[in-house]
Structures are given as structure tokens and as C-alpha cells.
What does this fold into?
Amino acid sequence: MNPRIVRLTYVAIALVGVLVVMTTYWQTWAAPGLAARQDNAIKRVAEFAVDRGLIFSFEPRKRLARNLQREVGSKTLYFRRYPFGPLAAHVVGYSTVGRSRTGLERSLNDYLTASNANLSTALEKALDELRGKPVEGNNVLTTLDLDAQGVALEQLGTRCGAVVAFDPRTGKVKAMASSPSFDPNRVEDDFDSISAITADCANPSPLLNRASAGLFVPGSTFKVVTASAALESRKYTPSSTFFDPGYCSVYGKRVNNFDTSSPFGTITLENALAYSVNSVFCNIGKALRARAILDTAKRFGFYERPPLETPADERAPSGLYRNGRLYYPAQDSDVDAGRMAFGQERLLVTPLQMAMVAGAIGVGGRLLEPQVVERIVAPGGKVVLRQRPTLIRRAVSQETAESVARMMRLAVERGTGTAAQIPGWSIGGKTGTGETGVPGANTTWFIAFASRDEETPAELAIAVVLENQEGTGGVTAAPIAKAVMEVILRGTENP
Amino acid sequence: MTARNRELAGLVLAAVLAGVALASVTIARDAEASTNAVVWGALFLGLYLVAHLVARRTVPDADGALLPLTAVLTAFGLAVNYRLDADDGGRQALWVAIGVGVLASTLIWLRHDYRVLEQYRYLFGVAAVVLLLLPSAPGLGERVNGVKLWVHVGPLQFQPGELAKICLILFLAGYLREKRESVARGRLKDLGPLLAIWGAAMLVIVQTNDLGSALLNFGIFLAMLYVATGRTLYVGVGLALFVAGAAALYNALDRVENRVTIWLHPWTDERVPCAINGQLEFRQDCASYQLVKSLYSIAHGGFGGTGLGEGTFESTDGTPLIPFLRTDFIFSAIAQELGLIGAAALLLCFLLFVVRGMRIALRAEDGFSKLLAAGLTFGFALQTFIIVGGVLRVVPLTGITLPFVSYGGTSVVANFLLLAGLLLVSQRANRPR
It folds into this structure.
């Protein structure tokens, strides 16, 4: 029997051996992947023993997230408080025991808990652990302007919508507000009150960051992209003339202007943008065809998640959508280019993306990475991470950008966007009214940039979107853009 | 150095380990060192010294490594159980003391010749089946987590499956020693009882829903059948029958199907119907909650672990994050607090125990002793594999205990019986002639 017992021994050794191998697998190889999972309650709860880093607004310098120290059993735990409640809830997010984290609380978790793979902080953390001291996280300074956040949310009021404002020269995000907002202090114990939040739209979804993850029909704001594509193709100039009969025929069907009662007749491209004439852009779209326009859109950042420090799934890529998925046509004929050219035809965009478009036009065609983090500082004062302006790419040529900028300035001077004029500043903007198919429930837009005069690059770019509106973008969204821009620009007037 | 002196040295080391582990737990909990750890270490040593002295008198030539290894395993178990719940740690200590008592009395009782047990093989066989089916008897059994494993008699409760395993091994050792030639020739008459066992294993699954126990007992049966007859064909056919039976049950019983689904796909990206609350949930938040949280616990330990007493098993308000932590998932608690180093050390102790056990089987002279030692040892190894493998997602998770470590009286006592068996066989093989 002995040879068989020996063989059985091998089997038994192999059984235990498999356990050693698999333990090693889970504790080394697979561990980082499991640690990153949002439902990992073990790691999430364990991190409440860390004196989590604070999150600050840039101007005025206030604590957006602080810690509440509490003794639980023999342990000291640090619970999160958000002194400004709903004011920056979507960007900052929340860190709770019961729910997975969101916002910067989630994406910068490694920094906030000092578990980022940086040699000096790792050493400090290990020393703290050995001394039995609580580990101290790194503090995050955001670029947010708290006054602008306040005005943006106040202006949005009970309406569903979002505001994004950033400096297109550096990419620094000054305001990112989404309405309805929520009080992150209530997420842990009173989530029902957040679920119960209502607003003037069918799906209030207060947790959704509409500014970067909300997808909306762009309407006429997309004409800025179409105009850029037209100029880049060199087939058109700002003074190219068109005949507007008040409609455009696509596949034998008439597509009307917003107001068909008074066709413009003969009109230049420049004025067509200023007065938002659908038929002109419809004809440009048919001539350029779908993919040429979409390729210009790609250069503005469409078809990729806009870069920002917030979690990837809180940012959505803009572009054509089919059955809820991003879709790039394999052939030009798959898409109705005429309707796409003025922002219909299954195009869905985020406010952040449209702010990037306005910004790039305002600064001569350069597309900068939007950033909401200024720097991250270790407890000792050492800067762990300093964000620097990062060029994504040149979206369009300087010449094209300047021409489109001029058209957008015209729109604010005497076109559809006059409500956004700010004395002392040169504003270029574009209104938008996206039809959702339900009368009186339009998505309205205003995107704009502001510069000191027509020669200097823009210092601020903004996108405002509102859901479920009866009026046009020029009436509903432009005043909000004006109010938010005024607050931010007032701070920069005497640098 | 004689076997018994080596044993004594090993026990002292195990006692030091137990003291250090308990000290570490109390320091983490109370943030101050106390002399209690020294007292506990001394008590632990005292307890095992009783076993050691009995062994000196009754089994002086038996293997000297098994008792210290057992001491180390129970030290792991006591420290972690105490860390998770101080009261249960105390109860577990009492069970270890009772286990040592059972070990000592078994050694004394069977010191002359344990082979008398062979006469009662059929009695053991019947006892094994009765014990396995006991939890499903009306009025006695209790369903815990959907599985019937427990028997209640008045205030007492025990898990008869643990004792059934020992009875089954005794029956098989006796039966196969007697019938192994004819079984090897494949006479249908002698295969009858074996087919009956296969049927019983299936019946156990149906009756108790307990896949783990069925797998364990059937695995032991196949291993001993192989050692007795050398017919790999039997093992193959037996495995095929088991898989076929289990596959049939997979379709017939929701519970078995659920276990396998959880094992294969613990995480889902989309919400799936959740049987617990009747709504759509991610599977990791529903059916595979336990397994997934246990994997997170293991991964959180990393290489060096969080340290004894420093792990995270409860939410900040004290609600447990991992259900059944002290029984089914004790390994994931150890892996988190002691890390890969500690978990691997624990597994190596199991490995050493298995190797020493098999060595005893090799050195034994008669068929009954060989089969008994090989069966007991393989059962020990397979049980470890099934529960730790379940926690590590190597096999579908089933609720059985980790020998000597998990919280639970019956399990501890049954494994001390197993240890007694191995020491007795070892004594007979090593006795001076």
C-alpha cells in the first residue's frame, strides 16, 4: 500500500500548495485591483482611521471638506463634514462609510489618505504607523471660486441644469455647478432626503454632475464647431454668402429655422452664426458631410472623456449617440449631416465639452486640459502635486479661431446673445435651443468667452445649460452666463 | 533527543507564540500592555503539558511533531477568535481544554491496542450515516444560512458532521482492510456497500444542502478506496459519478446552482435579480456579498497584514462587514491581520501536519492502521482545502470548519479525536521491539 500512500501524500501536499499559491495571488497580484473597487467596504472603512486630507476652494480660501474626529471603541475615526453643503457637492463629492465615494473624494482618495505611491509620503506614513499616530492625508487645493459657485447655483435655482466656467488660457476651472445639488452631509444618515429632492424636470437626479456627466442636445451651440469645420475646409470664408429661404431640405423633407416667419434671404456665414440661421448650417453640413464635421469636433475633444481630476465615470464623452452608446459613423451616409450641422441628429454633449469649445475659440484655437485641482500639499507643507497648464492640442488654426471668435462677438453685440453683454469686456457667445421633441421642454444653452478686448486672448470661457425650458437660450441661459462671468471677472479686473 | 522531548520543546514555543498573539490583541484593543498575556501563555502551556504528560505515559514513541503543530493551530484559532469576540474566545479556550481532555482520555482508553475498534466497523458505518442525516431529522435540526448542519438537544447544540467524518474513516479502514482483495477484483457484491455510500453522499446533499460535507466525505472515501485497492479506475468512476450526481443536483437544487454561480461570477457589472430582497442588485451586493467581502479582507492584509487587533471587520458603527467570520471565514480574518506571511505560516503548519500524518501511515505495519492514518490525514487535508479553497475562490464556497482554528466546539473535539488516532497509530508503528 505504501506507493499508493506516497501518491496520496502528493495529492494532499498539492491541495495545501494550491491554497498557498492562491493566498499569494489575492494578497499581492490581485490586491490593488480589489482595493480600487468601489464596493470594497473593508478598505473604505479602514480608511476612516486616516486623518483625511482637507479640500479647499481657491478664492476665497475656505475648507470645502473637513474632518470630525470621534472616538469609536479604542479607535479614533475621522468623519467627513462639508461646511458649504451643496455649494461644491458634485466636484468635491462625498466620503461616507455606507456608500461608495464620489467626486474628488473618490478620485483623489490615495492622496487624501496618503496612500499614494510617493516615496517620501509613503515613508512618513510608515513612520506614523510605527509611532501609533494616525496617518495624515494630503490636503487638496482646488481652483474653484466659491462666490462663482454660489452665484451659479443661485441663478440655476430650481431649474435643472449646469454651469461650467474656466480660464481657457490655463484650464483652471473656476465654477462647476450642477442643479439640483444636494447636501453631502446628509448622504450617510439621511439619504432619503436626497432621493426626495425635486426640481423642474422629470429626472432631478441630484447626485448626477450635469456639468461633466450630463448629456444634452447641443442645439445651435454646435454651429460653432460646424463653422470651424467650414473655415478649416477652406471651402468657406466668414463672408461666404448663402440664400436662406427659411428652411433647408434634407432627404426631401423641410427642416425649418427656429423662426420661419422671416427668412433672412441672402446672408453671410458671419451673420448666419450671429443670428443662428439653421438653413445655412444645414447646407454647410450637407456640403462638408458628417465625418468632416465630426473630425473637427474630435479636435475640440469630442469622442473622449474630457480630462478633469474627477472620477472617469463622472465625465461623459460627447458625440453622436446611438442606443445609449457613443457612436462614430462608418460612412457619411449613416448620418443626416444637414441636421447634425446645427446640433440635432442624436448629438449629445456635456457642458464641460461646450465650455472647452468656447474656450479654444477664445484663445486662438489652443485646447487646454480643464483642471479643478491647483495643488496637493503634504502635511509638512511639501507640494506633492502641482498642476500645470497642459495643452491637449491645437483644435483649429489661429485664423479660423479668430474668425469664429469674431462671429461669436457679433452674436453678443447684435445677434441672439445680447443678454450676455458685460460693459468693459468683449464677450463672444453662442446661444442654443435643443429640441427634445416635447414642445415647451427645450434644452437651452449659452456658451461664451470673455476677453478684455478683441485683440487679447479670452480669460474666461463658460457653458450654461438648462433643461425643460420654454424660452430660447438667449433669454434663459445667457443671463446666467453673464451673472457668473461678472463675479469671476470682477475678481480679475485689478490683478 | 527523543520524540517526547522534541514535543515538549515544540509546546513551549507554541505557548510563547500564543502569549505573544494574545498580548498583541490586548495591546491593540486597550492601547496598554498587561501581564495577562503571560498568564494566558502559562495556562496554555499548562493545558498542553497535561496532554504531553499523558502522551509520555501512553504513547511514548509516537510522533513528536503533531501535538506542537496542533498547539500552534489552536493558538492561531484562540488569538483570532478572542480578537473578534472576547467571550467567544473564552468559550473556544474551554473547548480546546475539553478537546485536550478527550485526547488524553482516548489515549488512556486505547493505550493497549486501538485495533479493537476494527470489530465495530459496521457500527461506525451506521453511526456515520445516522450522524450525517441527524440535522435533517424533524425537531432536531436547525437551518443556519440555508444549510442544515446543527443539532439541538435542549440547550446543547452540536455539528454531527464532524464526528461522522471520524466514524466514516473508522468504518472504511475496517471494511476495506477486510474486503480489499475482493473489492479490487470488482465483485459486485462487495461493491454494494460502496455504491450505498455514494448514494448516501448524494442523499446528504439533498437532505442538508451541505455540498461541502458531502464532498469531504466522498473525497475521503475515494482516497481510502484507492489506497486499499490501487484501482485508479474506481477513483475515476467515483469522481465521475460524484460530478454527474452534483451536476444533476445543480439543475435540481437552486442552492447548489447559486453556490456555483457565485463561485464563477462573484462580480457583475449589471444589476441582476437578487433573491434576498427581490430587487435588482449587483451580485457583489447580494448573493456573493460574503465571498467578495472576504476577498477584500484578504487583499487588505497584503504582504505583512494590518497587525493582530488592527484589522477592519466591522463598520464604524460596529455592524459586521463579513458574516460568519469566526466560523467559515476565519481564514480571511487571519489573512487580513497577519498578511501573506501569517497566512502562509498557518498553511505551512497544516502542510506539516499532513506530511507527518502520511509518514505515520507509511510506517504503520497492518492494513487497518495504514488505512486509518491515511484516511484521517487526508480528511484533515481535504477539509482544509475545501474551506480555505472556498474562501480563496478555488472551489465553490461551502460552510465547513477550518480544523483547530474555526470557532466551534464539535469541530475542535473531533479534530482532537483525529489527533489521538494518529498518535496511537504512530505509537504502534514506532514501538521498540
Notes: Chain A has a mean pLDDT of 90. Chain A is about 35% helix and 20% strand. Chain A has two domains: 41-142, 146-183+197-238+267-373+388-492. Residues 2-29 of chain A form the longest helix (28 residues).
